[in-house]
Amino acid sequence: MPNWLDVNPRSGVPIYVQLVQQITHALEIGILHAGDQLPTVRQLASELTIAPNTIVKAYDELARLGLIESRQGVGTLVAANMHGVLHQHQLDALLEQIAALVRDAANLGISEQALHDHFEREVARFYRGQQDRQGENSDDKHAGTVPGKPQLFGKE
User: Fold this and answer.
1) Closest CA to 23 of 42, 43, 1
2) For 62, which of 4, 68, 70, 89 could close a Cys bridge (C-beta 3.0–4.6 Å)?
3) Cβ atoms < 10 Å from Cβ of 38
4) b/e 76-107 (16+ beta carbons within 10 angstroms → b)
């Protein structure tokens, strides 16, 4: 069993969800790479002493997310295109966090303008600090996007 995989049957989180989260995390931090083979359902079920159907459910969810693929005679492998899929999942999660932040701010009575002002200040502070560390000193340095990253917000 991989040493980075650790399920806790008493955590209250379904075991298949723990497996999905831990395998996804292993992909995000580079423990697993495109083309890596995952343990077979039988191997993992035996090592974790859980039902094979639990492993199947986790692997099915990971396949649905586009992170792994099963190949007849080869086994279960990390998908070749998983970096784009992971990036999209991370982006979706970020946008969900922003939506929650806006809802929370509204529920706390923070006006739209005040929230916008705080957000703009924080964005400027963060990107100005990054660019200062990179040695960029142009006056229009906050107008564009981060090189290599798509523009998600603002004027396009």
Assistant:
1) 1
2) 68
3) 22
4) bbbbeebeeebeebeeeeeeeeeeeeeeebee
Q: pTM here?
A: 0.57
Two tokens, residue 13: 């989180």
Give yes or no: residues 93 and 63 share one domain. Answer: no
Range of the domain at 45: 15-80
Phi, psi of 69 (to 5 degrees): -145, 145
Check whether residue 31 and residue 76 sit in a common domain. yes
| Tokens found for residue 43 | 């191997």
Q: What is the pLDDT of residue 141?
A: 44
Question: What averages of pLDDT result for each successive group of 10 residues across the chain (156 residues)?
Answer: 82 96 86 91 93 96 92 88 70 87 95 94 84 59 47 44
Are 76 and 92 found together in one domain? no
Report which secondary-structure segment, H or E, holds 76: strand 75-78
Cα gap 108→125, rounded to integer Å: 24
